[in-house]
Protein 1
Amino acid sequence: MGIGKIKLSTLFVVLAASAMMLALGTNSYAAKDGKIIWKSSGHGPASDPSQIFHDKLCNAITEATGGRLTVKPFVGGSIVPAYKEVDAIDQGVLQMGYTCPMYNLDKWPAAGLVSSRPGGLPGEALRTWFDYGGGADLMNKMMGDYDVMTFPGALSPLPAEVFFHSKVKLESLADIKGLKARCMGDGGEILKRMGAATVIIPGGQLYEAMQRGTIDAFEYSTLASNWNMHFNEVAPYVYLSPTRAPSDPQVIFVSKKAWAKLPDDLKAIVKSVVAKYTQNQHEYLVYESVQAVDKFKAAGNEVYKVPKDIEEALTAEADKFYAEKSKSEKPIFSEIYNSMKEFGEAYNAIK
């Protein structure tokens, strides 16, 4: 092989390695002018309000820092598989992500306590516990040695999640038996114990899954989000109840290594912008969900409260589930559970 071919071959190897490193990402890297660039992904499709707010948040950080920190937003599933955002942060593919804690039950069983938990804290109380009651610190303790962290202000609680959009009318507990339903997190496990056939399906695939008959019902986010995703077209019944998910929190996660490299003034800006957008998203979705009830009804959907016997059975099964988990899981599980329980009791006492 000639010298020219060897040099050309070497160049190809170097370029390929560079391309691979760029594709995998690093915790943070500086452009030629010294500015820091992060990649961040939401977990939902482009039409999901949480994804829209994520993208606005990324752009707002870039603007607020004068471009010293540029956060490039990506739609859920476009750079890593949906619901794998936290893994991607830990692996250095992303530096930031906006996702539901419950999507990480494979790593942290206690994550389900913070995320769409049956019997959990309602939105206002959840954010207060997270920001002031030690919730963010407990989540960081839970995540341990993973290259992932969060901070007060990073949780958007959101209103109570829609219990189910369904093709099947739910008139009693008997209708839960054998129901093919998409239900995530601890709520999915608890409904499975009650006889439902629960599956995990990304939000962007729910419309088609209902069309194909893969599932009969599903939970997903708020009335406002679900109206924008046209779920009224695939499910005639809408069931509402806070028992399965009194709030539907999403959290901003960042890489510890990337965070450590930020100057203190940029950290303060990021925290400020994040807190503003997570709160704004919550308030927006509360308002829009109130409006969405009439939209679903006008579209021909029947909107009902979940039958009482289903709510009571779910609450009872959830109590058993968490009692068992508190004994079998690592101590951080009961630590988070008891912290939330104590705060909830104190919160209810002033209502």
Protein 2
Amino acid sequence: MKSSFTRSLMLVFVGALSLLLTGCGYNQFQSLDEQTKSAWSEVLNQYQRRADLIPNIVATVKGEASFEQDTLTKVIEARAKATSIQVTPETLNNPEAFKKFQAAQGEISSALSRLLVVTENYPSLKANQAFQDLRVQLEGTENRITVARNRYIQAVQSYNVLARSFPSNLTAMIFSYGVKPNFTVQNEAQISLPPAVNFDKK
């Protein structure tokens, strides 16, 4: 009898705790946290796709004997810097690490944009089918990066609204669900534009 009463009391307690956690946003934090992680993984996948394209682009451009070495060097250095940054799950919760990561990716975007602008001055590169194919792949990758980044921005926004709103902010404090860093407006404006690719010039 006593054992049955204790079991019933435990069930009531667990049920009440479940309702309490649900009402205070605990389950929603779990869901939104997983969404941000998933969105972040896609951002990383697309950045890696771009990083993998760069050696082929550089190798093709190097075939142009008179090509500006400074422009090539900046692309190579930007890629090396970005790929040297250790990205861990904690990057999502560390504003400084996140800022460093996005700055490095912004440098790659800037260097690649400059490279593609400069190649317009080299007719042999414009006539090189392998290089043109790489440009198309790069443009597609930049577009996918923009889409993935926008999804991440939306996921983090939903998570952060929950973390800052009452009463779910109390749950955030209790379970250490801190506000996540996001792409800055200034950085987003800089890197949301894919490199200009113009196939009409002769």
